[in-house]
Design brief:
5 helices, globular
Length: about 120
């Protein structure tokens, strides 16, 4: 794997995790875990799949950046994140990906979160 590719992947990974810091804590935790799992899962894919993987995550990062900026300007105080997937996009997914997407949606829309996250007020050493 060329060095520029590794650098590109790491930079994208870091940028996404930085954007997640701007999300509500429950979405940040869910998003961070999902990103870590997906990047780990795609470590050894072929170059064509890797290119598509990176393109999709670039689109995600750009959309999240835009949503974060829009939510900052929104005076109602209610943040809104996410987007609808077109039927065409859904048809491109493999069955495994549809299953992952369904699990992610269920976790993200649970009324009672599976875990409780609070921001620490103590400094970390």
């Amino acid at each position: 794997m060329p060095g520029w590719h590794v650098s590109r992947v790491r930079a994208l990974y870091r940028r996404i995790l930085q954007l997640h810091r701007l999300l509500p804590l429950d979405l940040k935790a869910l998003g961070d875990q999902y990103v870590k799992d997906e990047f780990r899962r795609h470590k050894t894919v072929g170059s064509e799949e890797a290119q598509r993987f990176l393109q999709e995550w670039e689109v995600y990062a750009a959309a999240l950046r835009q949503q974060v900026n829009e939510n900052r300007q929104n005076s109602t105080g209610k943040a809104c994140f996410g987007t609808s997937l077109s039927e065409e996009k859904l048809n491109d997914f493999r069955d495994e990906q549809i299953g992952q997407l369904q699990e992610l949606m269920q976790e993200a829309t649970k009324p009672n979160k599976q875990f409780s996250i609070t921001e620490s007020t103590k400094p970390k050493f």
